[in-house]
């Protein structure tokens, strides 16, 4: 049995691919499942371009890549039968806030139902160490700032995307309370930005970007004509919204450190951690 084999879902996406670099660089063997709904696969290539570049950056190969949907229980069980995982790191999710308001059922099916299916298969095959890449949107409207891990969640989540993350966290809490042996870490963060220092991978969304940094980047290279700034009367120094931005490689390091702790320390049950830079920047600052 490989005591170092990790299953990573959604690793072809922005956050997942950068975390994959950290895992491979830290000696983990990795199997990836991704339905490639938010990745580019060039003609003749057997996997998304992001994963090919991750392998080039790290000089290491994935154990396997499966282009599958986590809602496909038959395929999931085939993968769990073939491999003996020690932990699962879960990134697979639709994540555009605006889009989630337009097609909420797609978000609930993909994010919530897909996670339930994954957890059911994990339980069947005795894999109970789980890292959930969550979101600080689960806090909803803040009661106080800065928000810490003791802040209540679900307090007016403003969109279906945020609610899917909140619902999944509640499911994970109930699972940990009902069954011994589970060790779950939920990692909450807001705005990852930047790219790996090689420049080979980064945030390059298809269509019009939903996040500020890639939008600014596309305006800079003239893929977009101009940047729209929404809101000028927030209670901030310049009237625009302030956000906590965390560099993507810091976020990736946090996921890898969490995995190390789950595997090597006496963690159990439900655990939650906020990841952030601790310094806010307004839209005009950025």
From TrEMBL:
The keyword Zinc does not apply. It holds the Pfam family Epimerase. Its cofactor is NAD(+). It is an enzyme of class 5 (isomerase). InterPro entries: Epimerase_deHydtase (IPR001509), NAD(P)-bd_dom_sf (IPR036291), UDP_G4E (IPR005886). GO terms for cellular component: cytosol. Residues 6-262 form the NAD-dependent epimerase/dehydratase domain. Its EC number is 5.1.3.2. GO terms for molecular function: UDP-glucose 4-epimerase activity; UDP-N-acetylglucosamine 4-epimerase activity. Keywords: Carbohydrate metabolism, Galactose metabolism, Isomerase, NAD. Pathway: Carbohydrate metabolism; galactose metabolism. It catalyses: UDP-alpha-D-glucose = UDP-alpha-D-galactose; UDP-N-acetyl-alpha-D-glucosamine = UDP-N-acetyl-alpha-D-galactosamine. GO terms for biological process: galactose catabolic process via UDP-galactose, Leloir pathway. The keyword NAD applies. Homodimer. Belongs to the NAD(P)-dependent epimerase/dehydratase family. This is UDP-glucose 4-epimerase. It comes from Euroglyphus maynei.
